[in-house]
Amino acid sequence: MTARSPHQAQDWATMLPWRRSRLRRAGFDARLAAALAADLRYDLHAILDLTDHGCPPPLAARIVAPIDPPRP
Question: Of 43, 45, 37, which is closest to residue 14 (Cα–Cα)?
Fold first, then answer.
């Protein structure tokens, strides 16, 4: 992960718990919600749209999973 400026770090400190809580409310278990929330390659809105239309959370995560591996 690349270094973040203090402003970016503050934004991330707010965004990470928000992403995790949205995923938990959508039915994701705690472990998967934490992993997805921390990985910005996942489009949160796309995942939530799928689950809103009845897609099971683990399948929604697989459908939206990034193709490229994470950058070092």
Answer: 37
pLDDT surpasses 50 at 1: no
User: Exposure pattern of 8-24 as b/e (b: 16+ CB <10 Å)?
Assistant: eeeeeeeeeeebbebbb
Q: How many CA atoms lie within 13 A of 25 on its CB side?
A: 10
Measure the CA–CA gap between 53 and 26, rounded to whole angstroms. Answer: 11
Give the global pTM: 0.77
Cα angle: 45, vertex 51, 54; to 5 degrees: 145
